[in-house]
Fold:
Amino acid sequence: MSFAPVVGVLGLQGDVREHVAALSAAGADAVRVRRASELDDVDAIVIPGGESTTIGKLLVAFDLLEPLQKRVRAGMPAYGSCAGMILLADRVLDGTADQVAVGGLDITVRRNAFGRQVDSFEGDIDFAGLRSPLHAVFIRAPWVEDAGESVQVLAKVGDGQAAGRIVAVRQGPLMATSFHPELTGDLRVHQLFVQIVKEQQL
Amino acid sequence: MSSDSNGTGIGTAKVKRGMAEMLKGGVIMDVVTPEQAKIAEDAGAVAVMALERVPADIRAEGGVSRMSDPDMIDGIIEAVSIPVMAKCRIGHFAEAQVLQALGVDYIDESEVLTPADYTHHVDKWQFTVPFVCGATNLGEALRRLSEGAAMIRSKGEAGTGDVSNAVTHMRAIRGEINRLRTLSPDELFVAAKELQAPYDLVREVAETGALPVVLFTAGGIATPADAAMMMQLGADGVFVGSGIFKSGDPAKRARAIVEATTMHDDPGVVAKVSRGLGEAMVGITVDSLPVDHRLSSRGW
Structure:
């Protein structure tokens, strides 16, 4: 049986276009979501990279925060990269006083954990379930400081000062990465998420 | 260098250009104090541009305009958690070195400051920190890319509150990209000559129909409708300089421009956020400026 699940990309701010392209190439029907009515039509949501404080404020401004929280709590699959990871985390360190959270993932995320832009980097990491290393791009990236028992760790930083830091997690239908698979042309993370969405629909 | 190539380590083209991808759909605001930076962050800015005087004041006060005081930049970096950009003079690689040492997230090699070199721009490949540069047309944008810029902004005419030049420059860049798409491969050689830009970049733009980096708009944007228009004309995001903190209610106007940028194609939202903003910056028309006072002609 072959069908394309409708996956929304939260299109308020950030690298929306790249996620739409990656999801489409990974077999999803990808659409941009900026309004609550558009959220009703999707089977899953991706929260892109961007500025988490900005996306949070726009979620509130356009009355999307509560509907999104409700859907995620009700089991809708969600994937967040970078800013998206911060927004899906239950707990955020080094956020702003008014930092908005969608929540759902039982993790504590540290914002800008790797440092400023001059510390942004790319390199290969091992990712659970993938046969060969994944090329990962980290941009003013967060890391997962602490993960609850029901959270599966998918990837950690291999070497360097941040060696051992958790940078990809999954908890049931929720997934998050500190890095940006949408920037590399490697579709495996998006394919994994589309697979999660399809399994949820069976 | 192709935007698709993967590298390893810090300061690669991918992490420089990728940083700009994360700013898309957002508003970058000029600020001169930590307090203003906080107002910008609270309003939903994706980044702030730290500078000593906003362009409207540079224009009014005259004199030589330089990189900001490191103490002032430190203060702004301390005040906010969003990215902090800062400006260096065109060609002033030592100012750029200082800004990189201070840990700013992006350097704007900007025509708003007084140029330090009337022939050369900074060799931006030598830096770990990414650069954004202004352009009035496609050839200028591609020359900046060949020097290592990781983000382009259409110049407009800074410090005027007059959006007309931002429109002219955005339409010029987009129009020239569209024209390249219609040319046959053998015509691209002459196009590169005419654009005074490297052939490989010209061919890449002709094939993809877009710049290989993010294209923001700048220079004269003062209202939510200005931002909405520029986004509809194809900008990936918006720089607002004097338009916010030279207006009657900066916090409210900043927030309104952020929301109008996101919902740029929804006139209902743009109308709603445009209400009750108080005085816009007074402004000055570009036409009334003597040609040699126009900042957009700086850069070569």
